[in-house]
Inverse folding.
């Protein structure tokens, strides 16, 4: 009832040609969920942003796998944009974290609990 | 492409969906136990359990795909990446978490290589592992309290104790179960894999075609490539006396092909030019924002400003001529 779809193989060497699209999607889903759990459970602000990067990675793997499946380059192009957004996000987030750390001398997300309305 | 689709099997033959959900639950328990709680033992146990479940799921996927099993590199890279990802979210020391994330990035770079995305693999390693993660490491070192005198263990409470591990794991693995169910249920709606073919970019790269043909000795140095029709498989060549001749596809050298970087570049600049502009604006805004945010206001009185200016040689000493 459920089929595993093969990745399109454009004359690829046989030993590397085996994995199906579902393999990569499974890896991507697991990695995304690990990042999500990390974001929810860790209390260190830096690790929380590291976990968002983990989710970016997972999205990138899924995009490249789909691009490979359809044999076009749109997936890889979007990974370029993901990379851009990740770099911008890292710069902004780390600047914010440095600012917040100077204010409270702690990286604990709980020390900013009074922000919730 | 019957050769590769013959290995396709049904997932239901090996894992039925309920077993998949069972695997998700077990993996969730493992990850939940692995999250830092101040103690040590249940964490190692949980990590082992989660790793075992992950490995089992991978193995089941491999067995299902039949011919896919010999693909060793996929399993190496994905287990490395997922194991390192687990350590990223469970390691109590931020520096080690960042280092494990570098391992994840390198493993995903390997997966990209397997997907024949060479440029993205190396860009990922250079940009992520080389630039972004180093910034993270710097900030971790900047924003960590120094250990007190004679005290080696300086783990903060917020690093060793997870926040709501059970609830978060339930949410995460519910999402995973949903994603995998959708994935395996939904793939039959996907179109069949695309036909392997040429990207038909050669027609836009006359100089490259001419250079390659000259280097391979197909045309003489005085002949010039006039038009490339990749669909019809002909290259029109003009000699210096004005006569034309055609180079058919069977005479094309093997090195006359577009690589990953060329195809990606054409895709990026021809199909998504607006995206590049927006990406540039995003980066500029991020740079400005980071500079403005992290600027430190230093209050100096006039005396100190003057002394600093003297030290830097910006204004001459008292009484000296400019």
């Amino acid at each position: 009832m459920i089929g595993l779809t093969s990745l399109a193989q454009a004359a690829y060497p046989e030993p590397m040609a085996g994995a199906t699209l579902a393999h990569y999607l499974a890896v991507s889903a697991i990695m995304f969920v690990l990042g999500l759990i990390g974001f929810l459970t860790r209390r260190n602000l830096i690790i929380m942003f590291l976990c968002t990067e983990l989710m970016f990675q997972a999205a990138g793997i899924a995009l490249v796998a789909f691009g490979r499946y359809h044999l076009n380059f749109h997936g890889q192009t979007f990974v370029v944009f993901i990379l851009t957004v990740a770099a911008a996000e890292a710069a902004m987030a780390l600047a914010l974290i440095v600012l917040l750390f100077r204010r409270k001398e702690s990286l604990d997300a709980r020390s900013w609990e009074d922000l919730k309305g | 492409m019957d050769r590769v689709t013959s290995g396709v099997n049904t997932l239901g033959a090996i894992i039925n969906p309920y077993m998949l959900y069972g695997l998700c639950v077990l993996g969730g328990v493992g990850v939940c136990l692995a999250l830092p709680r101040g103690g040590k033992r249940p964490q190692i146990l949980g990590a082992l359990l989660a790793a075992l479940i992950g490995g089992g799921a991978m193995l089941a996927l491999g067995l299902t795909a039949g011919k896919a099993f010999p693909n060793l590199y996929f399993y190496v890279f994905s287990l490395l990446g997922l194991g390192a990802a687990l350590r990223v979210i469970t390691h109590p020391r931020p520096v080690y978490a960042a280092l494990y994330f570098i391992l994840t990035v390198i493993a995903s770079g390997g997966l990209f290589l397997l997907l024949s995305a060479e440029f993205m693999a190396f860009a990922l390693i250079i940009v992520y592992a080389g630039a972004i993660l180093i910034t993270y490491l710097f900030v971790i070192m900047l924003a960590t309290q120094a250990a007190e005198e004679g005290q080696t263990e300086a783990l903060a409470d917020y690093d060793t104790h997870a926040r709501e591990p059970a609830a978060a794991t339930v949410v995460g693995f519910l999402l995973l179960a949903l994603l995998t169910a959708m994935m395996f249920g939904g793939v039959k709606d996907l179109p069949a894999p695309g036909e392997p073919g040429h990207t038909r970019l050669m027609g836009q790269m006359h100089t490259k075609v001419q250079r390659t043909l000259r280097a391979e000795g197909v045309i003489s140095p005085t002949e010039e490539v006039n038009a490339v029709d990749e669909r019809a498989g002909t290259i029109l060549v003009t000699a210096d006396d004005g006569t034309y001749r055609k180079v058919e596809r069977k005479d094309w050298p093997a090195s006359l092909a577009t690589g990953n970087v060329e195809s990606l570049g054409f895709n990026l600049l021809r199909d998504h030019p607006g995206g590049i502009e927006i990406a540039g604006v995003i980066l500029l805004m991020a740079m400005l924002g980071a500079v403005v945010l992290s600027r430190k206001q230093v209050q100096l009185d006039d005396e100190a400003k003057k002394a600093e200016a003297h030290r830097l040689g910006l204004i001459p000493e008292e009484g000296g001529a400019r």
Notes: Confidence is low (pLDDT under 50) at residues 1-14 of chain B. The CA atoms of residues 298 and 305 of chain B lie 11 Å apart.
